[in-house]
């Protein structure tokens, strides 16, 4: 909404509130950051041989609309910083991918493969976090 927020207000001190708001923002977009029409392509990319995965995912990201690419880069660089502070926050690449994978990447219509999709969603986000500089450059 157009409401002005005071981020110094004590209600914003709980990191779970901020993270929940961030996830809700991405979950409620009309289309996920990894667009619906590329969902199966990303799943197929993560199924490739390990040496080919990064290249395949990087090529797919380049096919996304520029605003999606830019937003993805900023968000994932931030999430990588979260992981780099894992000693304090206990977040790993895998745990961040589990939290954000299904929010950022999902099929347009859910099928009976929800559990399988979740595994791939998490693996894709984890791969991008691990290979961030290879995918987006420095």
Automatic annotation (TrEMBL):
The keyword DNA-binding does not apply. Keywords: GTPase activation. GO terms for biological process: signal transduction. Residues 1-136 form the Rho-GAP domain. GO terms for cellular component: cytoplasm. It comes from the Eukaryota. GO terms for molecular function: GTPase activator activity. Pfam families: RhoGAP. InterPro entries: Rho-GAP, Rho_GTPase_activation_prot, RhoGAP_dom. The keyword Transport does not apply. This is RHG12 protein. It comes from Bucco capensis.
